[in-house]
Inverse folding.
């Protein structure tokens, strides 16, 4: 190519790129926003998005504090009663159960509360914590997990009890070893030095040590007012359980398809063979390392490098963390025998009827097999059969894909339910699966099934 032709080609290429940028403003370089301007802008937008989310929740759910009489979590917090998802106008649950998925979809009758639940600000995403966790963490460690741009969205009475009890497979004789305290870097040694071996104790130390995370770090695009140490594993998995902290998954793009993700309990990891709601990681070591390297930074390696990723040493640190996680036990279930089924001498009639539904007409045991009520597999419910694709508050409701079968042992301690918190109560969960699996359960059968789940 001659020099003149080369120059002409370069000019043509330059003009072409310029034209593309002009027609696609997102591709043009913009001046970097300084931190003070970022805070001011996001705080000014915060009320708008909070209002949007609260209006959605009130439209979808009955949010009243209405506990089940006599049903409590392991440390006594009341379990919420009833079906809280609101029905479309002039339709009953019985009407929906009699319809085919195609009819429900074509008539737009799928209850809005059964659609995927968006993150409190789905376009922004990131980790967000309930206020009770923020307050106690700040009290103990002087580390503030408040985000200046958004707050947690669900009412406290729909969340797990806090702080949750801790049961260990290695010392079942001790019962709750947390002594009613939130375990943090300030007290873990005092609480556990006499009941853990040195490897387990070091694993616990790492689990309560904060490390940089996408929204909580020292860079000037963080979402904390002060430069931040970061987030600890047990900030979300408080006391090895869950406090319903949420964020958006890092392994799905584009952003509108990313799922709000509920923090699952770490109880019972010793019997699980898959880790992560959809990632199907094969060991708890894989999951522990993945969370620190990728999930903490929304799956963006460049951000991890810039913000301060925590590179864990596989043979010691990851192993020690996993060893502690693997001795977290389920809460006691005094009505169950060694096979994980009800002892007839201890169970009520409706609990026993509910067990029969669980193993029979309800088809629950097809995935949730005793004694721990999981088959350690992934299943695709294909809920998209029931609704037309729609974008709500930045979240596109579409196919979810395969989801891990979580254990049901201790399920009353772990609201809200499903992988994205869309089901606030066990009553909601039973109605959801009654429709999705086309079971056609009667009203009493659904009530009995909830009664059985409460015994697990």
């Amino acid at each position: 190519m001659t020099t003149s032709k080369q120059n002409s080609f370069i000019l043509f290429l330059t003009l072409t790129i310029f034209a593309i940028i002009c027609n696609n403003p997102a591709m043009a370089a913009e001046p970097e926003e300084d931190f003070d301007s970022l805070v001011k802008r996001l705080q000014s937008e915060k009320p708008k998005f909070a209002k949007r989310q609260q209006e959605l929740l009130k439209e979808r759910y009955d949010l009243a504090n209405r506990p089940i009489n006599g049903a409590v979590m392991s440390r006594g917090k009341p379990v919420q009663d009833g079906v809280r998802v609101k029905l479309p106008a002039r339709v009953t649950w019985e009407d929906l159960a009699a319809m085919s998925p195609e009819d429900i979809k074509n008539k737009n009758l799928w209850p809005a509360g059964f659609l995927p639940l968006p993150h409190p600000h789905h376009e922004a995403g990131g980790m967000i914590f309930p206020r009770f966790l923020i307050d106690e963490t700040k009290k103990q460690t002087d580390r503030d997990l408040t985000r200046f741009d958004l707050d947690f969205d669900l009412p406290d009475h729909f969340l797990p009890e806090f702080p949750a009890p801790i049961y260990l497979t290695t010392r079942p004789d001790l019962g709750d070893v947390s002594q009613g305290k939130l375990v943090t870097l300030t007290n873990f040694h005092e609480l556990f030095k006499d009941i853990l071996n040195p490897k387990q104790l070091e694993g616990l130390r790492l689990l309560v040590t904060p490390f940089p995370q996408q929204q909580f770090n020292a860079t000037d695009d963080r979402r904390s007012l002060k430069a931040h140490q970061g987030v600890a594993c047990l900030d979300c998995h408080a006391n090895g359980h869950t406090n319903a902290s949420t964020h958006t998954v890092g392994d799905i793009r584009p952003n509108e398809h990313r799922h709000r993700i509920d923090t699952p309990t770490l109880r019972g990891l010793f019997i699980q063979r898959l880790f992560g709601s959809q990632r199907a990681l094969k060991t708890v070591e894989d999951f522990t390392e993945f969370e620190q390297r990728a999930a903490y930074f929304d799956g963006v390696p460049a951000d991890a490098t810039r913000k301060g990723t925590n590179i864990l040493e596989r043979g010691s640190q990851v192993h020690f963390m996993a060893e502690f996680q693997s001795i977290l036990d389920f809460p006691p279930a005094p009505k169950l025998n060694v096979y994980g089924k009800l002892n007839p001498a201890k169970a009520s009639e409706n609990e026993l009827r509910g067990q029969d539904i669980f193993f029979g007409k309800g088809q629950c045991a097809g995935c949730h097999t005793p004694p721990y009520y999981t088959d350690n597999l992934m299943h695709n419910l294909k809920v998209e059969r029931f609704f037309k694709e729609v974008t709500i508050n930045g979240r596109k409701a579409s196919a979810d894909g395969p989801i891990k079968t979580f254990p049901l042992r201790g399920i009353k301690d772990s609201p809200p339910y499903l992988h994205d918190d869309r089901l606030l109560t066990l009553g909601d969960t039973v109605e959801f699966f009654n429709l999705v699996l086309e079971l056609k359960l009667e009203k009493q059968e659904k009530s009995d099934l909830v009664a059985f789940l409460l015994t697990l």
Remarks:
- The chain is about 35% helix and 5% strand.
- The chain has one domain: 45-455.
- Residues 45-455 form a domain with the Cytochrome Bc1 Complex; Chain D, domain 2 fold (CATH 1.10.760.10).
